[in-house]
């Protein structure tokens, strides 16, 4: 079992930045592709970003390209999502997840392990 724990969420203003972290334990972290998803109330869980096992390549949803940056440190068993220029529509619960295979990386059903989520609220 790979355990994932997110942290770093909070309440910020439009245009602010937040840095989310995902700490992994229980299995070799470098074996997994790592994705970030978010879910707003009443909406489906949506893909935000993903990073390959070796930290390259990365993928982003169109809505966050140029504002969010995903990275990972396989020595520290952590992944981060740097979120800049936040907008009200970024408000959601953010989850990190781990997948064994890269195909379908944008689809949550291909992920094997999930964290509990961290809330991000962007107020205008």
- Percent helix range: under 10%
Low-pLDDT parts are: none
Q: Tell me the structural class.
A: mainly beta
Largest sheet, described in full? 7 strands, mixed
The total count of helices amounts to 0
Q: Could you tell me how far the N terminus lies from the C terminus, measured between alpha carbons in angstroms? A: 40 Å
The percentage of residues in β strands lies in over 45%
Question: How big is the Rg?
Answer: 13 Å
Helix and strand pattern = EEEEEEEEEEE
- Got a strand count? 11
Shape assignment: globular
Mean pLDDT: 95
Provide a descriptive summary of the structure in words.
The structure is a single chain. By secondary structure, the protein is mostly beta strands. Helices cover 0% and strands 49% of the residues. Strands 2, 4, 5, 6, 9, 10 and 11 form a seven-stranded mixed β-sheet that branches. It has a four-stranded antiparallel β-sheet with strand order 1-3-8-7, with no helix packed on it. Strand 7 (68-73) and strand 8 form a beta hairpin.
Care to give the gist of this entry?
This protein is mostly beta strands and 124 residues long. It is built from no helices and eleven strands.
Topology:
Blueprint: E1 3-7, E2 10-13, E3 18-25, E4 33-39, E5 46-51, E6 58-60, E7 68-73, E8 78-83, E9 92-99, E10 113-114, E11 118-123
Parallel strand pairs: 2-11
Antiparallel strand pairs: 1-3, 3-8, 4-5, 4-9, 5-6, 7-8, 9-10, 9-11
């Amino acid at each position: 079992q790979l355990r994932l724990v997110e942290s770093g969420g909070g309440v910020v203003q439009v245009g602010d930045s937040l840095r989310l972290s995902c700490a992994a334990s229980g299995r070799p972290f470098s074996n997994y592709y790592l994705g970030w998803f978010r879910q707003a109330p009443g909406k489906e869980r949506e893909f935000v970003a993903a990073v390959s096992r070796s930290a390259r390549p990365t993928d982003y949803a169109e809505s966050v390209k140029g504002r969010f940056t995903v990275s990972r440190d396989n020595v520290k068993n952590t992944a981060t999502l740097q979120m800049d220029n936040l907008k009200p529509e970024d408000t959601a619960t953010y989850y990190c997840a781990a997948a064994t295979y890269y195909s379908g990386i944008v689809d949550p059903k291909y992920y094997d392990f999930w964290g509990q989520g961290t809330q991000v609220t962007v107020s205008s």
